Amino acid sequence: MYFLIGVIVLILFILILYLVIRFRIRRFLNQFGFSGMNIKDIVEEARLEDEEIPKSLASMESIYLKQIHKDFPELSVEEMKKKAEIIIMDCYQAISKKSVGSLKGKAKAFVEEKIQEFADKPIAFQNFKIHNTVLSKYRKESGIVVLTFSTAFEYYLEIDGSNKKIQDRVKIDFLSVWDFSKCSSAHSISIHCPNCGSPVSSLQGNHCDYCGSVLLKDFGKVFICNDIVQY
Domain residues for 105? Predict the structure, then answer.
């Protein structure tokens, strides 16, 4: 008898809990203008927005451009943006081909990681389109300069027989050493070998500890890709 009463009480509790949750969801939907939509419609609308709306980018050009032009009068930020976009397109083409090709450093490491992520599945990035590229950060520390660019883009990912539209974005760091005499290990900037992508503990040795490439030749007076991150 007590067992039966307990079961009935539990059923009533679950029913009341369901009604309360349903009521709160409906009130929430009414509050934000979704009164005529059910959960399935909301999920579908969110999915479509995720496919159609480009990823947001935080531009800091109004803050950094004046200082960059002062520090590097001959540097074209617009050309650096184009360089970032070319690297991104080269990386995704390489991922499609499952081959790093002529890519080096962190771009090569980025492609290798993505190839491993997709494993043996054949993939393709169709209708690749760049939306925008912005300067998002500028750092100058211990003789080292880093320009960070963020790029938003879209493509159709063909994998496992499906063709899904994806909105994506990537950050690329371009690094240059403007004064080797000021370089030391006491800085917060992560440096990677432009040839193999391995971490560089110090520029004082002038050679990569892993592949032996000459760092002075690579970093001096030019901006090279030091990192690439999908976020």
Answer: 57-230
